[in-house]
């Protein structure tokens, strides 16, 4: 694994791509809190920061320093350029796996969005498709 060159992501849903959403790689600072269940209640961790690398209308992948087990819930704030305030979303951790960031060993955390308004999801997908079009234009 390397952080020097990002691997291409399929341009959208379709044959050979198990994902149902368009995806884009864009570096964004992600702030998150982990919900830890204690005595039948969820307690929120302090705020941590990660570097978002892969976003879609259904989930995201971002680089973090500490492991978060699969199935844990996290509250995320993502500063998408299409709106003035950070996007606030509750997500479920699908997996974490070893990765690199500037040569340092870290973890790549993959999440699916659980609580996200349809309006915000539509605006996010519109932004992603627009960015994909710009990237395609630059490549040609």
Short description:
The protein is of the alpha+beta class and 140 residues long.
Count of distinct structural domains: 1
State the fourth-level CATH superfamily.
predicted glycosyltransferase like domains
Span from first to last CA? Answer: 27 Å
Relative helix content: 10-25%
CATH architecture: Beta Barrel
List the main descriptive attributes of the protein structure presented here.
140 residues; Thrombin, subunit H; 46% strand; disordered N terminus
Description of the structure:
With 140 residues, the protein is an alpha+beta fold. It has a single domain, classed as predicted glycosyltransferase like domains (Thrombin, subunit H), CATH 2.40.10.220. Helices cover 16% and strands 46% of the residues. The protein contains one helix and eight strands, in the order E-E-E-E-E-E-E-E-H. The protein has a six-stranded antiparallel beta barrel. Strand 7 and strand 8 form a beta hairpin. It is globular, with a radius of gyration of 15 Å.
């Amino acid at each position: 694994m390397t952080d020097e060159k990002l691997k291409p992501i399929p341009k959208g849903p379709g044959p050979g791509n198990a994902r149902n959403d368009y995806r884009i790689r864009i570096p964004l600072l992600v702030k998150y809190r982990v919900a830890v269940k204690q005595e039948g209640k969820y307690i929120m961790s302090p705020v941590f920061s990660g570097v978002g690398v892969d976003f879609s209308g259904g989930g995201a992948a971002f680089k973090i320093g500490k492991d978060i087990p699969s199935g844990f819930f996290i509250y995320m704030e993502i500063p998408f350029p299409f709106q003035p305030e950070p996007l606030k979303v509750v997500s479920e951790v699908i997996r974490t796996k070893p990765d690199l960031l500037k040569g340092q060993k870290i973890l790549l955390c993959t999440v699916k969005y659980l609580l996200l308004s349809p309006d915000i999801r539509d605006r996010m997908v519109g932004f992603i498709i627009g960015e994909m079009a710009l990237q395609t234009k630059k490549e040609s």
